[in-house]
């Protein structure tokens, strides 16, 4: 499965400010689900825009269910349940911090979604 990821300019700015002691880095709190992370005619994965404000084709934002730390990585667990996103080809997610600012955009090969399908995605934020 093709995957393309972009850390946002907003997050990079906040990280630099935290490193300089000017501000603190806010935790990741939500995930946005979208169906616009791929070219609908070819299925090719689009490059995410680091200046973007939401997941490509975003249709739902949910709170993060669980975060674990594994060394220098934060593993973020999110689930699109049986009654969410039906009839869509899920191909984009975005992580948002506690200020509702975008952190990272991830586009991937489309996954069809119907009421019999639950999609779980483990995202790793590398530090």
Write a structural description:
The chain is built from 1 helix and 8 strands, in the order βαβββββββ. The model has no long low-confidence stretch (mean pLDDT 89). It has a 5-stranded antiparallel sheet with strand order 1-7-6-2-3. The protein has a 3-stranded antiparallel sheet with strand order 4-5-8, with no helix packed on it. The two termini are 24 Å apart. The relative contact order is 0.29. The protein has one domain (3-126). The radius of gyration is 15 Å and the shape is globular. The protein is mainly beta and 127 residues long.
Q: How many H/I helices?
A: 1
Helix content: under 10%
N→C terminal distance: 24 Å
Strand order of the largest sheet: 1-7-6-2-3
Element-by-element helix/strand order: EHEEEEEEE
Quaternary organization: single chain
Radius of gyration: 15 Å
Count of strand segments:
8
Major β-sheet profile: 5 strands, antiparallel
Poorly predicted parts: none
Report the mean per-residue pLDDT as an integer.
Answer: 89
Content-based structural category: mainly beta
Tell me what portion of residues adopts beta-strand conformation.
over 45%
The number of domains is 1
Shape: globular
Protein name: Phage tail-collar fibre protein
Region (Disordered): 32-54
